[in-house]
Amino acid sequence: SATSYTSINSGGHPSPHIQYGSRRSSIHSNTEPQEVADANVKFVRDTSKIWYKPNITREQAIAMLKDAAPGTFVVRDSNSFPGAFGLALKVATPPLGAPSSPKDPSSELVRHFLIEPTSRGVRLKGCANEPVFSSLSALVYQHSLMAMALPCQLLLPEPDAAARVLDSPGTSSTQQLLAQGAACNVLYLFTMDTESLTGPQAVRKAITTLFDQKPMPSATIVHFKVSTQGITLTDNARKLFFRRHYPTNNISHCGLDVDERTWEFISEDTGKALSA
Length: 276
Known about the structure:
This protein is α+β, with helices and mostly antiparallel strands. The chain contains seven helices and 15 strands.
């Protein structure tokens, strides 16, 4: 399938793209998202370079945390559940009845939890009393204030520590980009099946079909993130969907419209007409 969207860059000059992949469905929930102040969410997001490691394995998470202070944690992308996250948390004492590991007892103190996507946000899986949070950063912030269903509160790193990680001379810009992913806001236009077409020809057909729509579809601003795991679209306003994840092995081509056609829209910030 093909998803048409338009990226909005810092220079104010959007450009059309096509992204291919299969749709993923969200887990539906009737629970309203737990509200967390924007300033607190931003504070947590500023430290995410330390606690969000999308591409590490479960074993690497254990190695990172086993000698850390209780409450230290890391969040990674789940390999078993695409679109979900794995939370690894260092605790002070092992859970009751946990089998002992004679090789490395400290690894018993790293507990693992699944953060699942819902139609309205994210929540800890299997915890009936846990609310839904509008974002991963909101969930992390709230659990840094109170443990809730976790064994202990999350211990947030200091923002200046996150800055030191980014400025580390031993980390190349390419490595940082692969580890953190790249993200921007895009205009989501529509999705279509391109059948056997691939590459630029599929892009051309998708754009032609887009402009043949009667009436024309409405553009929706969504968050676009690309990493080694694939491409993730998040509709923060929940107008069309919450989150769609396209794994790397399902993406055949991303590219510009070879005919350089543009999409006209009205800026929500300025009210002026723009072309993309």
